[in-house]
Amino acid sequence: MIEGKPEEYTGLEGIEPAYKGKVRDIFELDGKLILVASDRVSAYDSVIPTPIPAKGAILTMISAQWFKWFEEVPNHMITTQVDMFPEPFNRFEAELAGRAMLVKKAERLDIECVVRGYIVGSGWKEYKNSGSVCGIELPAGLELAGKLEEPIFTPSTKAETGHDENISIEEAGRIVGMEMAEKLKKLSLDLYSRASEYASSRSIIIADTKFEFGLIDGEIAIIDEILTPDSSRFWLSEEYEPGHPQLSLDKQFVRDYLDSIGWDHDPPAPELPPEVVEKTVERYSLAVERLFPDFDRKG
What is the pLDDT of residue 295? Predict the structure, then answer.
């Protein structure tokens, strides 16, 4: 379990965020942003009233470490050290430590860059219906959660409301330009392959992941979060058995609990019992402890 986690974040006194999402607050500065990952958790498009302790810090830790790990690839991170944040944010050490990141503002490229190494989730549903995913024909007879011969790039729309939709590389090209779409495909597949190889050495399978990119000074850069349990499917190698759903290192216990009590997915969402919270914290914690056991939160 993560030691020395920051207290639950509930906002900054006297400062309103420019954007308040389901699980994250964004503060806008002159050409920069401060991204604050809360411990709020969402499921079925609703915010659950019960927080998951340390969740926001874990997601921030993992993103920061991956940004450093891919040091030669441009990204938007400036620092996670609160004392280096501009005034007045550097005064909120207790509220922001471990869970906030100062980043460069980017011109967002409006597609989600999804890479799949295993056939699961919406990719599995599309494959069962058509034998393909995002226009990519796949071999017959694949099993749920089975490993693909080669990772595939399966972009999606970036919906402001509702759900993202899987699209072909040609459709992605119509949104960002075909040359840009091909560059994002190559970069996404490279990042996924390198990360998967490293994660495998730490006994974690990255089944799939979602990258977001933007332009900073005209250069492609990774933005948002990267290779976290909320943007990826992480499985423990020792638990992996293809042919049925896998237990992920994320909020799966939350979704399973909500399904088990028959919640109809209409707000307000119900509270979570302590045992569901505890199991969820354990799974999130496993992700950072396996991937980056020597993580230094001061970085």
Answer: 65
CATH 3.30.200.20 boundaries in the chain: 19-105+272-291
- Per-position DSSP letters for 40-53, written without gaps between them: -EEETTEEESS--T
Task: Give alpha helix (H) positions in the chain.
Answer: 55-69, 93-96, 121-130, 169-176, 178-201, 252-260, 274-291
Pairing of strands 100-104, 107-108: unpaired
Identity of residue 152: I
Which tokens is 159 given?
A: 């919906």
CATH 3.30.470.20 placement within the chain = 108-239
Mean residue pLDDT of the chain comes to 93
3-state helix vs strand vs coil in the chain, percent to 5:
30, 25, 40
pLDDT digits (tens, 9 = 90+) for 135-162: 999 999 999 999 999 999 999 998 665 5
Do the Cβ atoms of 249 and 234 come closer than 8 Å? Answer: yes
Task: Calculate the CA 183 to chain-centre distance.
Answer: 21
What is the CATH code for 19-105+272-291?
3.30.200.20
**pLDDT (tens digit, 9 = 90+) per residue, 260-271?**
999 999 999 999
Q: Confirm or reject CATH 3.30.470.20 for domain 108-239, answering yes or no.
A: yes
- State the Cα–Cα distance between residues 269 and 264, nearest whole angstrom: 9
- The model's pLDDT over 175-222, given as tens digits with 9 standing for 90+, comes to 999 999 999 999 999 999 999 999 999 999 999 999 999 999 999 999
24: β partners: 37
Residue type, 82: V
The residue among 53, 49, 34 whose CA lies nearest residue 96 is: 34
